[in-house]
């Protein structure tokens, strides 16, 4: 046994070696703990975000009812209410024409401060009365179709005849940029959609593909685009049956097999006028099949929509 004369303390060599090894191990342990990365916060499949809820829940409805009751609110007689300058839409439009606005620029300055000048008829939202029913019904249609087709923000949607975007606004807001497409023939409707609705709703960045066209010409939407949902709300009612079938023939190959859906509102006389067997045969020749009739109640007024569902059953 070796003796180390250090102030009279006697330490054996094996004990010294053991002490040095323990100290070295402790050093590396502390170093590894201090330098290791923080626990991973990556989402696992179980943690992945579930599909966003689209329609209000029963709890949502009860909540808003409780807020109305808690604030003691009652609907008053439908008369012109007091305010800074209460006006009907017609009066608002006249004010814009005559007075331009409470505060406005004159002369050359009038052209330098408004990035996207909008016609007065659109500013007072006259186009919201073009549908024969409340504008709010567009949300009802969106909720029914989006949930029936199991859409996610990455889905792609085509509307045949989107008009002034009564329904389309809700799809555009929900879907990823560029994923809402529309074919519309009416110029005034397109003006309202592009010059008022999209800018006023802050949705220009969503870049929907809205094309002016008719006769079921979908050539401008790209030949490789595949849709999760294609729908027509009260549009086929105003088309010859032959043209509707032309459209279905052109669109069948653009619908995602099995999961994709086509929805048509109100009725399907283009099909029923042929008779059940002949309609089924023509659908099957296109790779389509009829899935059934649905109704959907409005959230805000006494109304329901009738929808007919189709899907592509083969590639």
Automatic annotation (TrEMBL):
Q: Which domain of life is it from?
A: Eukaryota
Under InterPro entries, the record lists: SAM-dependent_MTases_sf (IPR029063)
Q: Which CDD domains match?
A: AdoMet_MTases (cd02440)
Task: Spell out the SUPFAM superfamilies in the cross-references.
Answer: S-adenosyl-L-methionine-dependent methyltransferases
Coiled-coil-forming residues are: none
Protein name as catalogued: S-adenosylmethionine-dependent methyltransferase
Organism, as annotated? Sesamum alatum
